[in-house]
Amino acid sequence: MTMLTKIGNSQGIRIPKPIVKQANLQNCEIEFEVTKNGLLLKPVRKVVRKNWEKNIKDFLSKEAKDEAILNDMLDDSDLESWEW
User: How far apart are the first and last CA of the chain?
Assistant: First the structure.
């Protein structure tokens, strides 16, 4: 059990580490959902690699068209006179 704690103009709670681990809430954004019985906390699961395979295929199919641009981007000969 925990109590609401005043934090500036807001209020917050401390969640014990074992509960955070059990609920998979560590190091993630948390989504709030108000229910008829209270407040539900859920981790936000971002789908980082959504359409990953399709994006790679699209990129590879455009590779020939983008080769000139890519070569310009990878050309670092203008850095030869740069002093670090």
Answer: 57
The whole-angstrom separation of Cα 22 and Cα 60 is: 41
* Rounded alpha-carbon distances, angstroms, from residue 50 to 39, 47, 54, 55: 29, 6, 9, 9
The amino acid present at 63, given as its one-letter code, is E
CB count, 10 Å around CB of 15?
A: 13
pLDDT tens per residue, range 6-55 = 999 999 999 999 999 998 888 889 999 999 999 999 888 776 777 777 87
HEC string of 2-45 equals: CCCEEECCEEECCCCHHHHHHCCCCCCCEEEEEECCEEEEEECC
Q: Whole-prediction pTM value?
A: 0.46
